[in-house]
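Example S7 (structure tokens).
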């Protein structure tokens, strides 16, 4: 088994210590940092995402896999910066105003990071103006908003309206998700995509930004 396959397998089997060791060995073998990330870490997390989507594993396993992935990223990140590897896109992530839930949001953020995105997490109970500020500051490609309780659905619609009114929609894609959101509601309020879970958030984000 190649060292890249070992990295991939360590993610799939949730073994962060093996991920760290294999990433260090890959660097010692002069494997490009981009290959370690794309062919090792991301490849492993993609398998985990597929299993999660198929209900073969659940949130605890995904969290262990993303922890392993972050352990590997910690080894590779310093060299990634030196190699000028560009992220797949910049995502502003947050839970809407009035909603204090963050587990689902955090999981989406970890999965997106694992897929090569730069994620700016603006937190929970986020007013529309904070989304607008973050989009401008970070020149975001994507806005991902979460809403888990029914009485904050209107805050999701309001946030999209405020972003539109700020003139930020050209060049920006918006996806929404969370327990209170349906695909029909997402389309009604003008979002570009809907994600029912963290794995879907990655695939929808890639599709919207034209990433294979």
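Recovered sequence:
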């Amino acid at each position: 088994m190649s060292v890249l396959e070992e990295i991939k397998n360590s993610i799939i089997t949730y073994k962060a210590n093996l991920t760290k060791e294999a990433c260090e060995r890959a660097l010692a073998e002069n494997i490009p940092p981009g290959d370690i990330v794309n062919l090792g870490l991301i490849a492993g997390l993609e398998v985990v995402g597929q299993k999660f989507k198929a209900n073969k594993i659940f949130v605890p396993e995904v969290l262990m896999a993303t922890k392993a992935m972050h352990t590997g990223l910690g080894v590779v990140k310093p060299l990634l910066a030196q190699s000028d590897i560009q992220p797949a896109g910049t995502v502003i992530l947050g839970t809407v105003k009035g909603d204090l839930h963050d587990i689902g949001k955090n999981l989406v953020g970890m999965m997106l990071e694992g897929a090569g995105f730069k994620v700016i997490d603006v937190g929970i109970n986020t007013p529309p103006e904070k989304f607008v500020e973050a989009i401008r500051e970070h020149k975001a490609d994507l806005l991902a908003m979460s809403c888990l309780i029914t009485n904050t659905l209107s805050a999701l619609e309001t946030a999209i309206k405020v972003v539109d009114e700020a003139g930020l929609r050209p060049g920006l894609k918006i996806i929404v998700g969370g327990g209170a959101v349906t695909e029909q509601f997402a389309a009604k309020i003008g979002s570009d995509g809907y994600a029912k879970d963290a794995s879907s958030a990655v695939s929808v984000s890639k599709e919207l930004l034209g990433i294979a």
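Notes on this example. The chain has a mean pLDDT of 92.
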